[in-house]
Amino acid sequence: MTMFADDMAFYCRENSPTNLQSKLNADLAAITSWLHNNKLTLNVTKSKFMVNGGRDKLSQFNDIALVANNDQLEKVTKFKYLGVIINQHLTWHDHIEQLQRKLAKKLVFLAKATQSSSGVTALSLVYTVQLSVDTLQYGVKQCAEVENYKTSAECIIAYTNIEQESGYECQHQPPLENWPQLGQVRKENLGLVYYEVGLKILKDVCFTVDSHEKIGIVGRTGAGKSSLLSALFHMPQSTYYYY
């Protein structure tokens, strides 16, 4: 959901028309309930909804109906949001056509101004170009922001579908109940991989650190110093742990 002043837009991604309608109606019910509890209302007459997608798939979403405050929202194929006309195919055609109409009106004024002095004609030409360029730049900026918002939503959805990483508990050989008896760290045949089918970063590492003993780990870049410390703290899932 995004808000700009008193304008609000929320997005939902779904492949099934039934699931899309159910989710959006549930969101609308939650929003109208929150507005009612805070003594606010949703202007249903100005609220629109639009389904975006490819031409072949949009035909499956023709029967979607959204309701807010017991009133059905109007379904549109294009909508002006923050100065940019967005259509259901997410193309620039409608916005460019609007700019062409604006430019045509200004050119008509410019044609009439040519009958006046050259100074008025030059001034009119400068204003016409400036207004057209400013409008186009604003449209490009807003379209880029809308695309960024949708990309952010897609990233969040993608992150929710990532397989959960394993926990920090070792299931191969858990510590004894009376562990630790001594301040000693001993590792035998320690191996480490950062992902399931990855290369072994550490392989058959053996060492012992006695109580009150201080050691230093020295090596060139990429030798595995940080990986060894990460394995000691179980940050990635090590292949072997021995206590």
Quick summary of this structure?
Helix 3 (93-113) packs antiparallel against helix 4 (118-160). This protein is elongated.
Characterise the protein shown here.
The structure is a single chain. This protein has 243 residues and is α+β, with helices and mostly antiparallel strands. The protein folds into three domains: 17-87, no CATH class; 92-160; 185-212 and 219-233, no CATH class. The protein has five helices and ten strands; from the N terminus they run E-E-H-E-H-E-E-E-E-E-H-H-E-E-H. The strands form five sheets. The protein has a two-stranded antiparallel ribbon. The longest helix has 43 residues, at 118-160. The model has no long low-confidence stretch (mean pLDDT 77).
**Shape assignment:** elongated
Q: Kindly name the structural category.
A: alpha+beta
The Cα radius of gyration reads 31 Å
Low-confidence stretches: none
